[in-house]
Design goal:
Number of helices: 16
CATH class of the largest domain: Mainly Alpha
Order of helices and strands: HHHHHHHHHHHHHHHH
Number of domains: 2
CATH topology of the largest domain: Growth Hormone, Chain: A
Low-confidence stretches: 194-206
Strand content: under 5%
Number of strands: 0
Largest sheet: none
Distance between the termini: 37 Å
CATH superfamily of the largest domain: MFS general substrate transporter like domains
Structural class: mainly alpha
Shape: globular
């Protein structure tokens, strides 16, 4: 019998396969929507609408995917997700028109439910129980560069092979890279009863409905703000008075700020309760909004750094806080339930927030400011389990 891969290998593998999965799904519309829309004779908004519908499907299927990981472990579920990603991308690459393209994105919605962060977090919870926090942080550190890798890679493949070739290229990478890594280098999870043995006992083992609702609200507000700013950050900064060049330069700080905050979480804050980390992260965006709206264009870069740091930490909180609140038993299904509103908010935020920016300019940020304060209040109501 071969020895199980070490935790460091598991984290490196999941970080790599998560980078591939995010780069070939969530981040491809930004590069490929324009050529696809041109060929199909539709608007870019239509292509992004199809993508948003896929995200809503992912929200609906998340609990079922999490339950499967609870019962069977994440190794096989993640490996199957690579095949489903490959099928969706291949169908997208050969789609003759919009109806088949929509079907391809429906398949991608299934794959994203099975193969993105929540599935990876559940895999680690099943493997390492309450000790999974640093491993969760580790994969977000690696996969935090998914857009850095994915956007140039999609652009290069589209330039060389066209958008269809780019889709087929990503499909091939899932088969030749993602599938063997997930299937061969992720350990088999212990039986569900053993995985739950380290959870808090007695009444504390049962998830509390109020706490689950509060956590779902926190994650939904964070997901809305992250998706809204991810789609409209340069426009918001210009509405605040920054030039186009300054807005792009400030926006480029978003990725480094997110990764820097995750490094801080991995090092300095690793001994701090995830609940405290979540409160710090939730407070960041309201502070950033006040800085920008009070200081105007000169504060654009500071706004991005503070907002990005909070968003980077909240990505980790999405995985670690449910573990701290409820323990590892049943983590996958519960994760699918509490993150479903966040997935739906992420799907709807770019369109809804865009309407507000068009109508009110930078003042639209008062909405995300209010949501951030409400999330912070909810986090002070929550209490982590012993």
């Amino acid at each position: 019998m071969t020895a199980a891969p070490s935790r460091a290998v598991t984290v490196a593998v999941l970080g790599t396969t998560q980078t591939l999965s995010w780069a070939s799904s969530y981040y491809i519309p930004a590069i490929l929507a324009a050529p696809i829309a041109t060929e199909f004779g539709v608007s870019r908004a239509t292509i992004f609408g199809v993508f948003s519908a896929a995200l809503l499907l992912t929200a609906f299927l998340g609990p079922a995917a999490g339950r499967a990981i609870d019962q069977r472990g994440g190794r096989d579920v993640l490996a199957v997700s690579n095949l489903v990603f490959a099928a969706g991308l291949a169908l997208m690459g050969v789609s003759p028109g919009l109806p088949v393209f929509c079907l391809a994105w429906a398949i991608m919605g299934v794959a994203m439910a099975m193969g993105l962060y929540d599935a990876a977090f559940a895999t680690l919870a099943g493997l390492y129980g309450k000790e999974a926090r640093n491993s969760i942080t580790g994969i977000t550190l690696i996969a935090g560069f998914a857009s850095t890798v994915g956007w140039p890679a999609s652009a290069l493949m589209e330039a060389e092979w066209g958008w269809r070739g780019a889709c087929l290229g990503w499909a091939a990478l899932h088969v030749v890279l993602g599938l063997p890594l997930n299937r061969l280098l992720i350990p088999r999870a212990p039986p569900p009863a053993k995985a739950g043995a380290g959870a808090a006992g007695g009444a504390d083992a049962a998830p509390r409905v109020l706490d689950m609702a509060l956590l779902a609200f926190v994650l939904a507000t964070a997901g809305f703000s992250a998706a809204a700013l991810g789609a409209h950050l340069p426009g918001v900064l210009q509405a605040a008075g920054a030039t186009a060049a300054a807005a792009v330069a400030a926006g480029a700080l978003l990725g480094p700020a997110q990764v820097g905050a995750r490094i801080l979480e991995f090092g300095f804050l690793r001994k701090v309760s995830p609940l405290v980390s979540a409160r710090i992260a939730a407070a960041a965006h309201p502070v950033a909004v006040v800085v920008l709206l009070a200081g105007g264009a000169p504060m654009a870069a500071i706004f991005v750094l503070i907002h990005g740091a909070g968003n980077g930490m909240l990505t980790i909180t999405r995985g670690t806080l449910p573990l701290a609140l409820f323990g590892p038993a049943g983590y996958g299904h519960r994760q699918g339930v509490v993150t479903a509103p966040a997935r739906a908010a992420q799907a709807l935020a770019p369109f809804g927030f865009g309407l507000l920016v068009d109508a009110y300019g930078a003042q639209a940020l008062w909405l995300t400011f209010a949501l951030g304060l409400a999330a912070l209040g909810a986090l002070f109501v929550l209490r982590a389990r012993a």
